[in-house]
Amino acid sequence: MKNKSSAVFGFFVSGGGIIPYSEETISFLASGNKCPNCSHQVLAWARLNSYSADGKKLNYWRVAPLFPDLVECPKCYYRWKFFRDSQTITNDSSSVENPQSQQINSIKTVQPNITIHLEQESERNRTSNETVLVPPGVKITVKRSRTVEHTVDVSWSDLKGGSLDLGLKDIFGISIKGEIEKKRGRSYKESETIEYEVELNGEKVSQYNLVWTDIWCKGFIELTINNTTQMLPFRFRDSSELEVIPVKIDLQNSLKTLLERIVARELGLFLLLGTELGIFSLSDVRRGFIPQSTQNSPVRKYHAG
């Protein structure tokens, strides 16, 4: 039974261009990414196998056009049309006609094209800071780990003149990730746990700061829809590094600061006691003046000025 409320998934609208999904794609999205044939659920429709109209399997983030003609369930291998602009599709050597093909002939299918640009410099952001104290003359070894989510952040708020549904955003995110993998010559899982084992030497300093720094790849996508091109910046969380920073304590300045605090405290007590006993008034204290009558007192050599 068709879910009528799912019709909102059936079109991508931007700048007047309309991309219609097929009925099976609408059913797939509305059911929470379940195969219309076997009900197998995938994390996102980008996890489906993608094919061109002639049955050739596609790595869709590296070829144009961006969108596949056919998609396939990775469990039961059932294929269906991604869009409603195809007349027929082959499953198990049988041809299935598109009953709505005559109804959509007037709809122009416009597929967005993207070009991915990567910047040379990375962005480094400190995320957490931990202080570790080491006894003087002692060496210790500490282990620290951090799980990095290899996510793509695109500034979709900068998109003008339209909007993108979640499925297209997934495609763009995987396209960016695929381009970075190609440039770096490595693959990325969805998450990665990074572990460090470091030695802290108490013979050098007694305090260390352990700082985690996330490293982001930066760039922008050049998105063209209906002959209109926009630039959208993005970031990709590449890795995380643990930085060990020894903290050197200046003993001379520390002692000086401590003595200044002690003197300030004692002075405050002296002034409070003097005003309570009537030796001098608050106005004398404000002027920084101690009357001559205090010259013979035990604190006569101290002048508030």
Can you give a write-up of this model?
The chain is of the alpha+beta class. It folds into three domains: 108 residues, no CATH class; 132 residues, Proaerolysin, Chain A, domain 3 (Beta Complex), CATH 2.170.15; 39 residues. It has four helices and 14 strands. The strands form five sheets. Strands 8, 9, 11, 13 and 14 form a five-stranded antiparallel beta sheet that branches. The chain has a three-stranded antiparallel beta sheet with strand order 3-4-5, with no helix packed on it. The N terminus and C terminus are likely disordered.
Q: Can you lay out the helices and strands and say which pair or pack?
A:
Blueprint: E1 11-14, E2 17-20, H1 23-30, E3 49-51, E4 70-72, E5 79-81, E6 88-91, E7 94-97, E8 113-118, E9 123-133, E10 139-149, E11 152-154, H2 166-184, E12 191-201, E13 207-225, E14 228-246, H3 251-277, H4 282-287
